[in-house]
Amino acid sequence: MAENREKLNIERFKDVKLRVSFVISGKEMPFSKVMKLKEGDLIEFEDKKVEDYLDVLLNGQKFGIGELVVVNDKISLRLVDLV
């Protein structure tokens, strides 16, 4: 009976929309440098390699880790682990 009640409680939330995002890297830059950026400029991230895992966020909270993959010519994210 408790299992059925729990299932009903979860069902109530199945249509709630959540923001899923992932973090590739972060970098601090002086405002003066940001103001000089122009289209085509590159910002290098020394702390990440292409093959590194990414943090997956659910409404701003870490939800898991993933890796970038290409599926049907589109960039996608494969979940590797949930936290």
From TrEMBL:
A Pfam family hit: FliMN_C
InterPro entries found in the cross-reference section: FliN-like_C, FliN_T3SS_HrcQb, SpoA-like_sf
Boundaries of every Flagellar motor switch protein FliN-like C-terminal domain copy: 12-82
Keywords assigned by UniProt, alphabetized: Cell projection, Cilium, Flagellum
Chaperone is among the record's keywords: no
Similarity-based family: Belongs to the FliN/MopA/SpaO family.
Name of the featured protein: Flagellar motor switch protein FliN/FliY
